[in-house]
Automatic annotation (TrEMBL):
It holds the Pfam family Vut_1. It comes from Rhizobium lusitanum. PANTHER family: QUEUOSINE PRECURSOR TRANSPORTER, QUEUOSINE PRECURSOR TRANSPORTER-RELATED. This is Probable queuosine precursor transporter. It is found in: Cell inner membrane.
């Protein structure tokens, strides 16, 4: 009962992150960096979504992987429902698949590294989870091979200079994936600060399962 009450906080936080990310993904980042027009490759949702990994890791640390999976599945249900309501079915499938696979992999990696140096589990869990998340989402959503999920987006598969600046060209969705993953890595590193600050407060519950 104690675990259920406390994990409710994580469920609410995960829901908030998922809802915020679904809203903010509609707003491009209006800025330029090193000659790259960020509005062409990034939305504000790219900055809020990686916080989901922090929530998963904190749940895993305090209550174990079983509770973390429950929080992830709640976010999955909310995310898929919102995606099917606000986006095309192919994007919703890609978003839900990427979120679920990335978060569950994060839980698995975190659990394997939880007894090592404090930063290893959250860092490698989020980075490896983010890698899978990015690969699944952008492939499912835009790669021509996955056309069975829905029609291809001509603009996404049209070739253009990578990140709009390099001489080498690739389908636009490749640049979107590079930009998105770069943000996830950056936010993942930044999220070590709140994780480190909270880890002594949110100590593991002794009865929390670790498998």
């Amino acid at each position: 009962m104690l675990t259920a009450r406390h994990t409710l906080v994580y469920v609410m936080l995960m829901t908030l992150v998922v809802v915020a990310s679904n809203i903010l993904v509609q707003y491009p980042l209006q800025a330029t960096l090193a000659g790259i027009n960020l509005a062409d490759i990034l939305t504000w949702g790219a900055f809020t979504y990686p916080v989901a990994f922090l929530i998963t890791d904190l749940t895993n640390r305090q209550f174990g992987p079983k509770a973390a999976r429950k929080v992830v599945f709640t976010g999955f249900v909310v995310g898929v429902a919102l995606s099917f309501y606000t986006a095309q079915p192919r994007i919703a499938i890609a978003s839900g698949s990427a979120y679920l696979a990335g978060q569950l992999l994060d839980i698995s990696v975190f659990n394997r590294l939880r007894r090592m140096a404090w930063w290893r589990a959250p860092l490698f869990g989020s980075l490896i989870g983010s890698t899978l998340d990015t690969m699944i989402f952008f492939s499912f959503a835009f790669a021509p091979f996955f056309v069975f999920f829905g029609p291809n987006d001509p603009f996404a598969i049209d070739w253009a200079p990578i990140l709009g600046t390099f001489a080498t060209s690739a389908p636009r969705w490749i640049s979107w994936a590079i930009g998105d993953f770069s943000v996830k890595v950056t936010v993942g590193l930044v999220m070590l600060l709140p994780y480190g600050a909270l880890m002594n407060t949110l100590k593991p519950i002794s009865q929390a399962p670790t498998a």
